[in-house]
Amino acid sequence: MIDFIHRRDDAADADWYLLQSGEPGRIVEADVRFRVTGKIPELWDPVTGEIREAAVWREKDGVTELPMSFPINGAMFVVFRKPSAGREPLVTFSPVKAFTGVVDSRAIVLKNGKPGVLAFDSGRFTGQTKSGKTVAAEVTAPAPIALDGPWTVSFDPGLGGPAEPVVFEKLTSLHEHTDPKIKYYSGPASYKRTIEIPAAMLGEGRRLMLDLGQVIELAEVRLNGRKIAVAWCPPYAVDLTAAARPGANDLEIIAVNKWHNRWIGDEQLPPDVDTVLPNFGGLNRTPVRFPDWAKQGKKSPNGRILFSTFMPRTKEDKLGAAGLLGPVTLRGGVEAELK
Question: What are the extents of the domains in the chain?
């Protein structure tokens, strides 16, 4: 199921559709029909801001049919505003692998207007054009590079984290660490390491993607000191092409988690305020009164990090996964013409 909103702009002679996956937590693939003909469907990505022409579409019985693939909880704008006269789009396309919703090979429109493929997988890609011509490309994509470790991880001491960086030989959830300053940590954690990028992954017609794997909850990616993007929803993947260089590159991933674990960590310490259950019921305790140290903007005298008008966790509550879990992988793509 796909949810949508449609807006028609008569002055601009354009149609705007916002489509969203209606199946939370699932990858969705569907042939979507639009009550528009004679226009090129454009795909406007609301997460990355990328605008591109759809490579595969067909007109039939007064509608435009567009094969679409949505990552988990994904969305896409589809805009019809440019005449399609003289265009020879693909009407079918066969990838090498099934859609995963992360870094996938896909049909594209090349700069010369011809049909092509952006391939992250090796193999033979085939399609059929509007005129019935069968086209194909045999592509050898670079092998993915796993960034297993070690990672040097830095925390914010002001949020209860260690004052010095800690080396993680492999990526694991922060809540599994033996150090309480990491186990109960909530806030930004900076993961750094130097990566080697082969020249074969860069250059004209190449695309370099960083697949972060699992992130709890979001992550900012920096390469060679340059902020690339913030990955805050699936797919947790970022385009490194513009900032990458052959050879050594400095990679930093700043992962941020929720306050859940910090609340539980604070509950391991002596209370710093008298609390009471609210009259309206519930399990969240509230302070009887604001303590003087909070009024004065000072820190808790008992070493707690958080203070609020309600206390949502207890010391017995279960910790949640946190940080960069991975696996983190470099994936190289190759553009090739289908002919």
Answer: 2-141
Task: Name the CATH topology of 2-141.
Answer: Immunoglobulin-like (2.60.40)
329-337/145-146 β-pairing: antiparallel
Could you tell me the two tokens for 55?
Answer: 């490579």
Tokens of 118: 């952006």
- pLDDT tens across the length of the chain (339 residues): 899 999 999 999 999 999 999 888 899 999 999 999 999 999 999 999 999 999 999 999 999 999 999 999 999 999 999 999 888 999 999 998 999 989 999 999 999 899 999 999 999 999 999 999 999 999 999 999 999 989 999 999 999 999 999 999 999 999 999 999 999 999 999 999 999 999 999 999 999 999 999 999 999 999 999 999 999 998 999 999 999 999 999 999 999 999 999 999 999 999 998 888 776 666 678 888 888 998 899 999 999 999 888 888 889 999 999 999 999 999 999 999 999
**Helix segments in 186-318, DSSP class H:** 260-266, 292-295
Q: What is the pTM of this model?
A: 0.92
Give the residue from 211, 186, 136 showing the smallest Cα distance to 322: 186
3-state SS, one letter per residue, for the chain: CEEEEEEEECCCCEEEEEEEECCCCCCEEEEEEECCCCEEEEEECCCCCCEEECCECEEECCEEEEEEEECCCCEEEEEEEEECCCCCCEEEEECCCCCCCCCCCEEEECCCCCEEEEECCCEEEEEEECCCCEEEEEECCCCCEECCCCEEEECCHHHCCCCCCEEECCCCCHHHCCCHHHHCCCCEEEEEEEEEECHHHCCCCEEEEEECEEEECEEEEEECCEEEEEECCCCCEEECCCCCCCEEEEEEEEEECCCHHHHHHHCCCCCCCCEECCCCCCCCEEECCCCHHHHCCCCCCCCCCCCCCCECCCCCCCCCCCEEEECCEEEEEEEEECC
